[in-house]
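FORM 7B: Structural annotation worksheet

SECTION A. Query
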Amino acid sequence: MNERTVMLVDDDVSFLKNMKAGLEYSIKNIKLITHTNAEDAWESLGKNEVSLLITDQKLPDMSGIELVTLVDKKYPAIPIIFITAYGTPNLKYRAMDTGAIKFFDKPIDLKEMIREVEKGLKLSADDLTRIKKMSLATVLELISMEKKTASVVVKSEKTNESGRIWFREGNLIDAELDNLEGIEAVFEMLSYGDVDIVIREREHERVTILNVSLEYVLLEGMKRLDEKKVEEEKKVTKAKQDDDEIEKENIEAEKLDRANKILKKELGKGLLAANIFTINGSKTLVSYNSSPKTGKILNEMAQKINKYLNEMELPSVNKYYIMDLADNKTLIIITFREYRWAILVDSRELKLGLLINLILPNIIEMI
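SECTION B. Predicted structure
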């Protein structure tokens, strides 16, 4: 028979030594690992294949209940024996409800402990059913059909969340998952799709909370799962649309940047500044020697000019307008598609007619 590992956690060193000696002497093929605090025990669980955990309630760093809760979520297949010198009905209920198979009050009868450890080791081998990547709905239907009394630990590898569902004689009793309880916890677990499951077929202390049929829960759960899938598909579609839009904007920005570079090459030192911005939103896309606020100011100017022209019953500004500025500077605002192109030039260095009627139209047509 293969050697099985039992972990014993208690801050009483003398108790650890005596219990370790008694168990190793009485039970064949077991190895005892002992720890005086929960933190070391938790770390050790990740390094050893433990067949049974025995833990005291009073520990220096966290309570036994807190340790049992952690173990139950990450290592649900490990049977747990809970011991305490300060037992209360509420503590017993919490321990058994969380995953303990036996609750001992100190002082402990060694013979009884040996019997329970042997039962626990048999549990870890025989009375636990492990199912990898299977539909939770199918498993719940089977438990209901076979009228089993069991607790079902459900773990989603995708979200790393772990929950539990309780049955008594095939009837759904209760469920919990993180901050969810009852039917909402079941619905959330059903939405995980394929999950890893550990079934413990044994009596439990859970009080009946749910008074609904499993058929209703499964139908409603499947409905919510379908709705969730539709929402996820919408999110995927929206993300793809956003990605496509960003890619489109990047391609467009490259074209506009190329337009500015061509203009700079054509005009040389005659070009003082250039800025291409959106008509809606005044967002500057590319610029040369220009302030980011230029687009907003010039868009407001264009709107006011058109407003005044309209009030005077005159036609609105067409594709471009020119402003003759001081010091031989000229500002040209040209509109194309959803953009405006503001170009500041030194009028002594170029011919405006050639720029407006030939150079700019050719560049715009190229992009």
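SECTION C. Observations
The chain has three domains: 1-126, 127-212, 248-366. Residues 127-212 form one domain.

SECTION D. Sign-off
Analyst initials: ____
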